[in-house]
Amino acid sequence: MTDSLALDVDRIRKEALRTMAAGPATSPYGLDTERVVSVLNDVVATEVVGWLRYTRHAITARGTDRSQVSTLFSAHADHEMQHAVRVAERIAELGGQPNFDPATLAQRAHTDYSVPDDAALKAMLEQNLLAARIVISAYQEIARWLGDRDPTTRRLIESVLAEEEENADALATLLAA
């Protein structure tokens, strides 16, 4: 087995010319673009609902560890909004329209917007950890579904997934303390 790489640039050039009329270079080969956009809009809804939940929890958290947990919730809220924007940008790249409609966010999100009655830190941590685990499982399935048919979108979802896993680890660590 050799470690060399031999690119057939002529073949690559011919293939690129052939696909020029097919649309943007980042189109999802082998997938229904409308379905990909729909799935991604559900991800946008999930991330916006997560931003809302984390933001509300950061503001209303009570208890002795309030400062530390509130700071964590604020950081996670920032991540959620960044994720929503990145996914919305991908939707636009695919020729779709990002859906930030407040009237449908909750129905399209993979997680819910839940607020504990007493603003207890433990309940907030548990709710956010549950939401993070749901998101992790959903995004793993989305990445598998995308597979090699849309590697650009799959890498985006995997990147968001990695950050969601880090967030879940931080929540689990605080819950265990």
UniProtKB/TrEMBL annotation:
Give an example GO molecular function.
heme binding
Task: Identify the cofactor(s).
Answer: heme b
Give the CC-aspect GO terms: cytosol
Q: Which PROSITE patterns match?
A: FERRITIN_LIKE (PS50905)
List the InterPro entries: Dps-like (IPR014490), Ferritin-like (IPR012347), Ferritin-like_diiron (IPR009040), Ferritin-like_SF (IPR009078), Ferritin_DPS_dom (IPR008331)
The processes (GO biological process) annotated in the record are:
intracellular iron ion homeostasis
User: Where do the Ferritin-like diiron domain residues begin and end?
Assistant: 30-177
> What keyword terms does UniProt attach to this protein?
Iron, Iron storage
Name of the protein in its database record: Bacterioferritin
